[in-house]
Amino acid sequence: SLTAATQPVLARSSERGIIHIEINSAPLRNAKGEIVAGIEAVRDITEHKRAEEALRASEIELQRFVAEAPVGLGILDENWRAISANKALCELTGYEEHEIVGSTYALYTHPDDLAANILLTDELFRGVRSEYTCEKRYIRKSGDIIWVSVKATRIELSSHAGPLLLAAVQDITERKLAMEEREHLSRDLHDNTLQALYAVGMQL
Question: In what order do the strands lie in the sheet with 17-29?
């Protein structure tokens, strides 16, 4: 070879069977610059290859989990733009996957809840926190407003440079409405009790 080169190849070991090796070759030149010989260095990279394969397998498993999860799942890159959105998240927001991917969560987050969410996301990507949980409102594509609980976790994938955010989203609208109804009844009971006590006091 006229130039240095690195080549991964498979080899057979009498003790370990098939292994991965890396051959680094380079020409040896004399004082005139003429090639007089070649130099080769062999390095066993079997464990490195196995680690790479394990990472690829885990990332494939993560992608399958995101796609099939019963709760809304999305992955944001360091620019806060979605690189993945599963079917459940699309159903929650009313947007198609191609509309969500490439966009930030400002697309469907209620404007009044956006500032607090931005602060949490900024802290996560800066490494101040590794996860956060928040409750906020979504404005669906239809215009309907729903309440959701978001659990965000910082993750890293070998196939992507930079940190990522994995968000799990669950619809809590019914629970929120029930809580608001209980609070409303509690206020009414409180007000009615005060009025009754006031009336008794006036009679006394």
Answer: 5-13, 17-29, 35-44
Q: What is the pTM of this model?
A: 0.60
* CA 31 – CA 14 distance, rounded (Å): 41
What are 87-112's pLDDT values in tens digits? 999 999 999 999 999 999 999 999 99
* Helix and strand counts by DSSP (H, E) for the chain: 5, 8
Count other C-beta atoms under 10 Å from residue 3's C-beta: 7
Residue recorded with tokens 């380079």: 26
Q: Write the burial class of residue 155 (CB in 10 Å: 0-12 exposed, 13-18 middle, 19+ buried).
A: middle
Q: How far apart are CA 170 and CA 148, in angstroms?
A: 5
For residue 47, report the phi and psi dihedrals to the nearest 5 degrees.
-65, -35
User: Are 123 and 129 contacting, i.e. CB atoms less than 8 angstroms apart?
Assistant: yes
- Region for residue 170 given its phi and psi (left: phi exceeds 0; alpha: psi -120 to 50; beta: otherwise): beta
| Alpha helices in 69-172, H assignment, sequence order | 87-93, 97-100, 111-125
d(CA 11, CA 21): 7
- What is the spatial distance between Cα 185 and Cα 168, in angstroms, rounded to a whole number? 32
Amino acid at the residue 158: S
